[in-house]
C-alpha cells in the first residue's frame, strides 16, 4: 500500500554514562527488531543515559557520545531514519540536549530541546542550555556541516518528519505545533519521562491531543526501567498516535520495549487539505522560508505486511461501552432535532410510514421519544402501513406489533388496488416479457393478459407473481408502489422520513418515493449503524420512553433486527422475502466501508480497495471487493440528483451527504475516473 511509513519506538537496556555499550544495544535493537521499520525513535539521551547528572559536564562523556553517534550513523541500514538522544557541546561551550537524525550513513540533522524542566525532581538547566539562537549548523569531523535547530523537517516523498524532546510536548505551545503547520506530518518525541501515579494517562492524553491538534502522527518514545536510579523510576512508555487516535502503546516496566506501526501520511495530508482552520493557522503563525527541509532516503515499499487496524465497520466500535455511548448520543441528537421541528408545526400531528423494516423502526422510536420528551400524546403520531405486492407477513406483523406496543394511531392502506389501476392507466403490464407456466401452458405474462392492461386485477397480478422466476425485475412495478406509499403518507400530514445514509449514497430509493419526506431523522445514519440502534433500543428502551409501552418491545425489535433488508417491492415466494437489497447493491458492511473512506478520508479508488482487502481478506476475494467497489462508485455518482433535493435532517456523525452542508457535487459528473484502478 502506497504512502505507508512504518514508525517504531524502542527503549533498550541502558548503561548510564557508557556510550559504547548503548550504541551496541541500539544497533542490536535495529537489526533484530526494526528490520521493516522506516523511522525508528529511541529515548531522550539514549546514547549516554538520561540520569548522568553532573557527568554531562565532563568532556570525556561529551566526546565519546558524539563519536558513538557518528559511528552508529555509519552502521545502521541506509534506508532508515533513526533518532537517538545525545548531549552536544556548542561553539559557545554550552551543552544542548539533542535529538540526532541519522540516515544514509551520516547525521542528517540535530534538533535541540527547547524547554528544559527545572522543577521538583528535574534540574536540566544545571547542565543544558536553551540559548540556541547562534547555532545554524554544527561542524563535525571532516568539516561536515550538519543542520541544527528546531526548524528542521526531514523529507521523503509525502512524509515530512520533525522532532522534539520530552518537555517540549508538555509546553503550552509545543515546537511540534509550528513544525506541523510548516508541513511536518510525523512528529517524533525522544523522552525520559519518569513514572508517577497517574502520569502515564496524562502522557497518553498529551500525545493523543497533540496528534489531533496538529493533524499528524505523533511517535513518543520514553526511557525504560534500566534508566531508573536514585529517586527516579522510568517505565518505557512508548506511544504511537495518529490524528487523535492511539494506534499502539507499550506495556510499561519492561526492561526492553519495542512497538511499531504504519502511518498513512496520505491520509494525514488529505485531512489537512480539507481543514481550512489548519491552513489559516499556517498563514498566521508560520513562515515557510524559516524552516529547513532535509532530504532523507527511505524504502517503505520493502514491507509485505500492513500494520494498520482492520476496521471492517468504521461507523461502529467493537467496544460495547463506546457503542452504547454512540447510540445514546445519536438518539439524543435525533430527539433534540425532532423537538425543534415539531415546535414549529401548526399542530402536534405527524405521519410516518411504518414498514416493519429497520429504517422506519429507528425513525418511529426516535419520534416517540421526542413526543414523550415534549409531553405530546403518541396518539398524534399516525403510523401508516401500506402493504404492497411484495409485503411479507413477517414485516406486516412486526409493523403492527411495533405500533401497538408504542401506542400510536395505526392505519392500513393496501396499495395494491391503486397500484393496479395505475398500471392500467399507464398501459403497463408488469413483468410482461417474462415467461410463466400456468396449468401446464407456457406463455409470456403479456400473453396471459392478452395484451390488454384493462384485464389487470389485483388477484390476477398476485396469481402471476407466484409463477415468475426469483430474479424477475420490473422497475416501474417497484416505483409505482414506492411513490404511492409516499403519496399517501405526505397527503395525510407532516411526514417524517425513514431513509438512511447508505441508501442515499447508493441511490437505493425511488426518486420522489421513499427518497422524499418533510423531515428525515435518519439521513446521516448508515445502515450498519441503524441495525446497532435497533439492538440498543431493544436492550435500553426504558431510557428513552416516559409513557407506557404495551407488548414485548424488546422481542419485536429483535425480530425486526433479524429480518432481511428489503424494499419488499418484488414478488414473494411461498410468502417469504426474496428481494434482498444486499444482493442488488452489495453488502452494507462493504458499502459503508467504501462510503466512509471516500467521504470522510477522501481516499481514491485504489486506496479504498487496498484498505478493504486488508480489512476483509477473510470474507471476500480481491476480485469481489473490486466488483462491489466499482458498483458503489457508479451508483454513488448516478444518484447525486436524488441527494441534491433531499429533505432536512440532523447531522449525527462526521459523514453526511446533505447538499446544504456536507457534500456538494454536480449531478452529471462522470464516474469513470473514480473507477480506474491503474
Write the layout of secondary structure elements.
Elements: E1 4-11, H1 19-33, E2 39-41, H2 59-75, E3 81-89, E4 95-103, E5 106-112, E6 137-140, E7 144-147, E8 152-156, E9 159-165, H3 167-170, H4 175-182, E10 186-191, H5 199-213, E11 217-222, E12 239-242, E13 245-249, E14 257-264, H6 265-273, H7 276-285, E15 292-295, H8 320-343, E16 350-353, H9 358-374, E17 381-385, H10 393-406, E18 409-412, H11 416-426, E19 435-438, E20 441-444, H12 445-448, H13 458-465, H14 475-492, E21 495-496, H15 501-506, H16 527-540, H17 553-561, H18 581-585, H19 588-600, H20 605-616, H21 622-638, H22 640-643
Parallel strand pairs: 1-2, 2-3, 8-15, 9-10, 10-11, 16-17, 16-21, 17-18
Antiparallel strand pairs: 1-14, 3-4, 4-5, 6-7, 8-9, 11-12, 12-13, 19-20
Helix pairs in contact: 1-2, 8-9, 8-16, 9-16, 10-17, 11-14, 16-17, 19-20, 19-21, 20-21
Overview of this protein structure:
This protein is α/β, with parallel strands linked by helices and 678 residues long. The chain has a seven-stranded mixed β-sheet with strand order 13-12-11-10-9-8-15. Helix 9 packs across helix 16 and helix 16 runs antiparallel to helix 17 (553-561). 37% of the residues lie in helices and 17% in strands. The protein has 22 helices and 21 strands.
Trace the largest sheet across and list its strands: 13-12-11-10-9-8-15
* CATH class group of the largest domain: Alpha Beta
Strand content: 15-25%
CATH superfamily of the largest domain: Carbon-nitrogen hydrolase
Helices and strands: which structural class? Answer: alpha/beta
Q: Determine Rg (CA atoms, Å).
A: 32 Å
Helix fraction bin: 25-40%
State the shape: elongated
